[in-house]
Design a protein that fits this description.
- The protein is mainly beta and about 130 residues long.
- It has one domain.
- A hairpin with a 3-residue loop joins strand 7 and strand 8.
- It has 2 helices and 9 strands; from the N terminus they run E-E-E-E-E-H-E-H-E-E-E.
- The chain starts with 10 loop residues before the first strand and ends with a strand.
- The strands form 2 sheets. A 5-stranded antiparallel β-sheet has the order 1-6-7-8-5, with helices on one face.
Length: about 130
């Protein structure tokens, strides 16, 4: 997998049929019995409502405190308003390519990131998550 020198290229990600806008807080993260990753999110600051993001078969998952992502913030990435992003270029994707000896090298992988005030969940997946209002 070949990437430009840029550290990452996050863009706001909006699920199909999505009428709202963040920011969101992460309410919970769990795996279902069938191996799907389920992330519960809720609106913040007057943005009422909860939703669920479900990744059918994530390739890699990283859950960290917001302070552990200083590289993003120091390189100018700012979360304003919306909390769900996707990237086709990132250090996380390069790490997966390197650590898997190229097994997962594919232009079809996407790095999804849900950033909240305290916890951030990053997922590498071949498919975008299903989004349902709770």
């Amino acid at each position: 997998m070949s990437y430009p020198a840029k550290e990452f290229d996050f863009e706001e990600w909006f699920p199909p049929k999505f009428s709202g806008y963040g920011p969101f807080i992460i309410e919970g993260v769990e795996y279902s019995p069938n191996g799907a990753l389920i992330i519960g999110i809720a609106g913040k600051a007057g943005n009422a409502g909860s939703a669920v993001l479900e990744f059918d078969a994530p390739i890699a998952v990283r859950i960290v405190g917001e302070g552990s992502l200083m590289k993003y913030w120091e390189n100018g990435f700012v979360v304003r308003g919306h909390s769900i992003f996707s990237a086709r270029n990132s250090d996380f994707l390069r790490w997966l390519d390197s650590s898997s000896a190229g097994v997962h090298a594919s232009d079809k992988l996407t790095h999804y990131a849900i950033f909240s005030d305290d916890i951030c969940v990053e997922v590498i997946s071949y498919a975008s998550p299903d989004f349902t209002r709770a």
